[in-house]
Every structure is written in structure tokens, then in C-alpha cells.
Amino acid sequence: MAQSIEKGDIYFFYRPKVNKEKITGIGDIQRFHLVLVPEGQEKARLFIVGKKRLPEIAKGKSRSTTREWMMNELTDKPEKIGEEFKPLKYTTKTRGKQDQGEAIPVGEGRYALFEREDSTRLGYKLSRPSKPGKAQKELGILPEASFVISVRNPEVKVRGFPESEPGYPKKLQKKFADERWIDVDDPKLLNYESAQLVLIGAHDTLEKADVKITGKPNLFKKLGLKSADWPTDALEKGKFAKPQFNVEAKSPEGDRGKGGRRGGAKATKTGSAAGIARSLKGVDFPKDHDGLVKYAKSHDAPDEVVEVLEELPKGPFRNMAEVQRALGEVR
Length: 331
Description:
Blueprint: E1 3-16, E2 29-38, E3 44-49, E4 67-76, H1 78-83, E5 88-92, E6 96-100, E7 104-116, E8 119-128, H2 134-139, E9 144-152, H3 170-173, E10 181-183, E11 196-203, H4 206-209, H5 219-222, H6 233-237, H7 264-270, H8 272-279, H9 289-298, H10 303-309, H11 320-330
Antiparallel strand pairs: 1-2, 1-7, 2-3, 3-4, 4-11, 5-6, 7-8, 8-9, 9-10, 9-11
Helix pairs in contact: 7-8, 9-10
């Protein structure tokens, strides 16, 4: 039996795009979130998942080559994480007042971080919905699954990943040595906002992963949300649910064009650099002005980020550092 490092509740949410009242597929979704609530701890972790879906798991193979990135947006009390899912109201220069629906729960279950063979894994088992539907299929959420999970060394450049500043203490930073990626043998590596992770599909059943996950999650209670105020069709029936706006909307902390609250405290402190870096996560350099704008739009970047990128010179830009320097000159 695999050795567990950490266990707890796992929740999945999707945030509709701005002014979207009907959700028919992944194209109507702005963000896909994963929440980990560890047992015996006072804080939970909120992650954004790249490409708005979990990596595909190749049936019949011990490990897939499909991978997706995740980034820690916020580590705080579970109730604070719940507040992040409220509807949003804000104003942009080009489109005026905008409404964005609440983040909608699309899965809840239990998870385990564990060691197996030569890697650390993240495994989960859904409790709801009892039978995944279209919503879960499009987001890559299986009834149960496991993934190889690694964390990026913020001091080593990795192609396609923007520079990040999780602010690891020396003890944790030493774990990386000169490696680009390391196993999550210490779950504290996941606690720091702006920490970057990669998931690689491993197994579509926990039996193959040799791990047992038990317990019953309680999404609404843990996150301090009232189930009556939240749409539950995705969670209970597997159907894409539309936002209800039953909860009082909040204004994102900070300027949305400067990254807002989405990246947690680090993003707020670093201003526009963090917001733009997240919107350009995964871009292949070199890119010129038009290439950056096109990439941002195709990956659903906020309007304000696109507006700032449109002010850049023609380029080309060889890396994110050159983009940041150019931004400093035009703002």
C-alpha cells in the first residue's frame, strides 16, 4: 500500500466568463479551480488549473504523457477561499460595468498525497456527483484518478512558465537544489501563493495507484457557503449549471488590470506584472506584440490585461523579462 503524505477534501469549481448566463461547454468558462482542504489544518489551498481541465489519463497505460500546470492562487482559511467564489462586479475602460457569475461547484470528494515508485502522486475519489456527466467529462474529472505531481523551482527558468515568487523559506528552497522540478514530499511546498505545479496523468482507478481513500467531504460547510444560494446541477447531476447571482457580488481586490486578488497576496504586491504573467503562462517565446495579444485573447485574459499588452511596442520579445521591462516603460 502506498504511503500517504496528506489527506483531506478536494473540490472542483468553474467560473463562467464575464456576462455569461448560459454555460454549454468549456468555451463558456473563464477559470477552472481545484481546492485542497487538508485534514487537521486551519488553512486550505486554492489552485487555478491550466487549459481549464485536468490532464487526460491514457487507459491501459501506467502513465500518460499528458500534463497540465496548476498554480496556487490563495492559501487561507477555508471560509476565505469560499468568499473568492462569489459573483464579481467591476468596471473596465472599454466595456463599462461587467458582471461575472459565481464559481460553480462541479465536484467534491476526498484526496490523498502519497508516494509511489519514484514519484509523489495526487489521488482523489469523487463523492458527488455519483455519476459524472458532461460537465465533468469536459473538465477531465473522473470518478477517481491519480496524477504524478511535481513543484517547480522558482529560481530555475522553465520554458513556458513565467517567473514566480512563492517566497519559500530557505529550508524549503534548499530542497530544490539545482533541479527544475521536485516531488512534493513535503506538503508545505503547496502552501505558498504563486507556487507552480505540474500534473501528469497516472491512473484512472485508485486500485491501480495502490492507495485507499476514505471519508466524506462537506464542501458547503467547509467553505462557509449556503447550499441554497449556490447552483448545484453540476455537482449533483453532472450538468453544466448557470450562475444564479443569489449571493451578493464582490469587487475584486485591487485593479483587475493589475492582477487583482486572483494571485493572492503576491499578485497584489507585484501589481500588473503578476496578472500579465499569469495571462501569458505557457506562451512560447519569442513573440511579437501581435502574438502576445492574440495569445492573451485566446486564453481568456481579462480585458484590462489585453489593453495593457496592446500598448507594448512591436517587439519581438525573447522572454517574460523583456515583456515586463517593456511594460515598465509604457505604464
